[in-house]
Design a protein that fits this description.
The structure is a single chain. The protein has six helices and nine strands, in the order αααβαβββαβαββββ. Strands 3-2-1-4-5-7-6-8-9 form a nine-stranded mixed sheet, covered by helices on one side. Strand 1, helix 4 and strand 2 form a beta-alpha-beta unit. Helix 3 packs across helix 4. The protein starts with 6 loop residues before the first helix and ends with a strand. About 3% of the residues have low confidence. It comes from Pseudogemmobacter humi. This is Methyltransferase.
């Protein structure tokens, strides 16, 4: 005796397309959202700046006590600088509440507001694909004694749109690779690693396309800070 086929049963219980669509109609519609600021505004958590200052403050002070924060935003980096005894001049294209803001595009400056520049620039203005390194060219064109930029750690790996020539001409002095992922937007699980890149007139680079690289820790830095040559 053979068992009865179950194929007809499966066909009978398989939901019809119309019925399936009716069930889905009651579900909420999920619309993808892009939370990225159109001006690439990513507020910098204070620990990223504090860790950097802990290892660089003496080199920075060799150029004075006045810092120009060239993309000051609401002052996330500037406040940490003030806490460490620096004076801060802040400029930006949008007023996000920083007192005494100079409301002007960075590209409109023809003279530096201070000999030291420290900022987290809009990434679309400095990367290879979109910005062609424009922010860096403007920053160094103002001839600062000291420039520090918080960037994607992969930024220096780009080669398109003239980046080979850019790094040959404007090789950094030192890079601090952050050994934690900075959560700029507070959503958890940030996707990338970041580095502080420094151009310091008092510390020439190792050579063309070669610079000192150091690991930067989130906790209080000490003698564990390791050094690597790129």
């Amino acid at each position: 005796m053979t068992a009865a086929s179950t194929k007809s049963l499966f066909r009978a219980t398989k939901p019809k397309p119309a019925a399936a669509q009716a069930m889905l109609a009651d579900l909420p519609v999920v619309v993808p959202t892009d939370t990225r600021d159109p001006l690439d505004y990513d507020p910098t958590p204070p620990d990223a700046t504090a860790a950097f200052l802990a290892v660089e403050i003496d080199h920075i002070r060799a150029h004075g006590d006045l810092v120009w924060e060239t993309a000051v935003g609401a002052g996330h980096i500037a406040r940490v600088l003030l806490d460490h005894g620096f004076g801060v001049v802040g400029s930006d294209v949008v007023d996000r509440g920083w007192p005494g803001l100079t409301l002007r595009s960075f590209y409109d400056f023809r003279a530096a507001a201070a000999p030291i520049q420290i900022t987290n620039p809009p990434y679309g203005e400095i990367n290879a694909r979109d910005g062609h390194g424009r922010w860096l060219r403007q920053a160094l064109g103002l001839r600062p004694g000291y420039l520090a930029l918080l960037l994607n750690a992969d930024w220096a790996a780009a080669r398109i749109n003239g980046f080979d020539d850019l790094f040959s001409s404007f090789t950094p002095s030192v890079e601090y690779l952050c050994c934690w992922k900075i959560d700029f937007r507070g959503g958890g699980s940030p996707p990338q690693r970041n580095s502080w890149f420094v151009w310091d007139l008092n510390r020439p680079p190792v050579g063309p396309n070669a610079w000192l690289r150091r690991r930067l820790y989130r906790d209080v830095p000490d003698s564990r800070q390791g050094e690597l040559f790129a």
